[in-house]
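Tokens as discussed.
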């Protein structure tokens, strides 16, 4: 029997949406107020969905402590209260929430092996959320 587990986490980060491949005018037109040179912040809600067979002994598809430990160490400690433009994962990559979602997915996909990573969902605001289930490479 296969089961899915979704775990929720919160973190805060700032970013400026700005592409070096666009002119100042194009950046302003494309990103609007999100192109503010001083940046702006969000309180993100991250959902990580994993799946796996239910272990007969434990009754679990994934040990929550293992998932929590990995997410705290590899995602939250790296991103919480950070300017996303300044972290290595966004060198040459616009830190949109779409790209942030794929970066988080990539970190989880490469490092968390006790269960299968199904998808990552990231709520940026009450109006914007993004899902990524893999299958496409990041564009720079």
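Sequence:
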């Amino acid at each position: 029997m296969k089961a899915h587990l979704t775990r929720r986490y919160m973190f805060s980060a700032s970013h400026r949406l700005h592409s070096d491949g666009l002119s100042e005018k194009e950046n302003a037109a494309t990103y609007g107020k999100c192109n503010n040179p001083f940046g702006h912040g969000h309180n993100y809600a991250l959902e990580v969905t994993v799946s796996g067979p239910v272990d007969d002994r434990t009754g679990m598809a994934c040990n929550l402590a293992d998932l929590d430990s990995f997410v705290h160490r590899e995602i939250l400690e790296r991103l919480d209260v950070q300017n996303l433009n300044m972290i290595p994962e966004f060198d040459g990559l616009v830190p949109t929430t779409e790209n942030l979602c794929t970066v988080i997915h990539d970190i989880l996909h490469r490092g968390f092996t006790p269960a299968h990573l199904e998808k990552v969902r990231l709520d940026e605001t009450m109006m914007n959320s993004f899902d990524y289930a893999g299958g496409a490479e990041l564009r720079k």
